[in-house]
Amino acid sequence: MAGTGVFAEIIEGEVYKYYADGEWKLSSSGKSVSIVNPTTRKTQYKVQACTQEEVNKVMETAKVAQKSWAKTPLWKRAELLHKAAAILKEHKAPIAEALVKEIAKPAKDAVTEVVRSGDLISYCAEEGVRLLGQGAFLVSDSFPGNERTKYCLTSKIPLGVVLAIPPFNYPVNLAVSKIGPALIAGNSLVLKPPTQGAVACLHMVHCFQLAGFPKGLISCITGKGSEIGDFLTMHPGVNCISFTGGDTGIAISKKAGMIPLQMELGGKDACIVLEDADLDLVAANIIKGGFSYSGQRCTAVKVILVIESVADSLVEKVKAKVAKLTVGPPEDDCDITPVVSESSANFIEGLVMDAKQKGATFCQEYKREGNLIWPLLLDHVRPDMRIAWEEPFGPVLPVIRIGSVEEGIHHCNASNFGLQGCVFTKDINKAMLISDAMETGTVQINSAPARGPDHFPFQGIKDSGIGSQGITNSINMMTKVKSTVINLPTPSYTMG
Ligand code: G3H
């Protein structure tokens, strides 16, 4: 159970502590932040409301800890990460329980998130050992005008203190996707979890403590974004920010100093369906891609662009599958669970009502109870409807019927997002042309968009983000190349 057993020390009374300098602490503010359970809409947990002074202290210790961590042999860093991964998996149950209560993630998916996170940490350790164990050796005489008098040796060095800000929908997995690369590369890590998801993150961080990471190397600071958000992201002690979330990321990038940024800010992933597509495969992927975790994934299918001649048939197949989705509490492992907050449910409802007023066809009756919204497919959506462009982050999915592939590509590219997209066709040549034409970070051919497997590159263009993620890219992003040039008094040619 969350907050018990090995996790008993991370809670005092009913309030979870924050983690700094290798210890679980109470904030000097004496205040806490409540975490509302999306299902019951009642306070489920409380976490510390940390102060700016506490942020300053965390930054100081992170800076000191990083210096000696960078001198820790790579194999030892990897060993500790493997240990943390094993401990995390061992304690998957209480962490998953927190995910169910804080963000209403279906019970089985919550466990999967923790296990996937353990695997991700181990992969970081493996990849880091290979990637950081080698550099480059360059000679000068390949550039015009040079003799072979200079040898350049390059290696990858850590950036310093990495600030990780994951979103509510994968608080554990998208935290470790930043923590693993940062630590293996020799950085220290300050984690600011989302409010909903903070308790799962605190448990996850404790697994790193149990693994024996040096004090101060990892910290987890909780609190109100309004009080410590800007203070953290603009803090002079931060050398890199890795953020996943919404529009806030755009504000962070505008305010951040001259430091590397890794940003993933959502998407409006289009699913383009051609006449020759296997419609059963498409329907199955629309259900998985559009409705898993109630559509609260940045890579969810968020608009279907289907060629008119097969639209009726596809809509019927999707409708039949929507009817089979179970709706209810995450504890029962239902397919559709309450969305994260009342404001989110209100926003989704606003998009749905706008579409209704403008003449969209509802394939199911619109139904909502509290934060629970029943799955809804909206047919005959037109570009003048908000839902054609905006990201609902909920179980509602628009269908736009298109007269040509070009029309579909045009809609996809007119979006301010550019995360992923997908195309369904049996013609690989057409699929490649469409993939090349789609202005998105990734295009999936004959499958729904998805970030994983977690070592694949993952990136968005336009408002969907900055930089590329995936384990290898994240390790590279959280390092800098350092060169040492050996200057010889006379040219030297090997075996010359
Ligand atoms: O919500 C954003 C996540 O990066 C999506 O990850 O494709 O594994 O669901 P996923």
Q: Helix share of residues? A: 25-40%
Helix segment tally: 14
Largest sheet: 7 strands, mixed
Arrangement of strands in the largest sheet: 16-19-20-15-14-21-22
Poorly predicted runs: none
Distance between the termini: 69 Å
Strand fraction equals 15-25%
Shape verdict: globular
- Number of strand segments: 26
Mean residue pLDDT = 97
The small molecules bound here are: glyceraldehyde-3-phosphate
Structural classification: alpha/beta
**Cα gyration radius (Å):** 24 Å
Give a concise summary.
The protein is α/β, with parallel strands linked by helices. The chain has helices at residues 52-69, 74-90, 92-103, 107-132, 173-184, 198-211, 225-233, 248-255, 279-291, 308-322, 342-357, 405-414, 428-437, 471-477; strands spanning 11-12, 15-16, 18-20, 23-25, 32-36, 43-48, 136-139, 150-158, 161-165, 188-191, 218-220, 240-244, 261-264, 269-273, 301-307, 361-362, 368-369, 372-373, 376-379, 396-402, 420-424, 442-445, 458-459, 465-466, 468-469, 479-487. A hairpin with a 2-residue loop joins strand 17 (368-369) and strand 18 (372-373).
Which helices and strands occur, and which strands form pairs?
Blueprint: E1 11-12, E2 15-16, E3 18-20, E4 23-25, E5 32-36, E6 43-48, H1 52-69, H2 74-90, H3 92-103, H4 107-132, E7 136-139, E8 150-158, E9 161-165, H5 173-184, E10 188-191, H6 198-211, E11 218-220, H7 225-233, E12 240-244, H8 248-255, E13 261-264, E14 269-273, H9 279-291, E15 301-307, H10 308-322, H11 342-357, E16 361-362, E17 368-369, E18 372-373, E19 376-379, E20 396-402, H12 405-414, E21 420-424, H13 428-437, E22 442-445, E23 458-459, E24 465-466, E25 468-469, H14 471-477, E26 479-487
Parallel strand pairs: 2-6, 9-10, 9-12, 10-11, 12-13, 14-15, 14-21, 15-20, 19-20, 21-22
Antiparallel strand pairs: 1-2, 3-4, 5-6, 7-8, 8-26, 13-24, 16-19, 17-18, 23-25
Bound molecules: glyceraldehyde-3-phosphate (G3H).
Glyceraldehyde-3-phosphate binds next to loops.
GO molecular function, one term: glyceraldehyde-3-phosphate dehydrogenase (NADP+) (non-phosphorylating) activity
Domain Aldehyde dehydrogenase: 26-483
InterPro entries: Ald_DH/histidinol_DH (IPR016161), Ald_DH_C (IPR016163), Ald_DH_CS_CYS (IPR016160), Ald_DH_CS_GLU (IPR029510), Ald_DH_N (IPR016162), Aldehyde_DH_dom (IPR015590), ALDH-related_metabolic_enz (IPR051020)
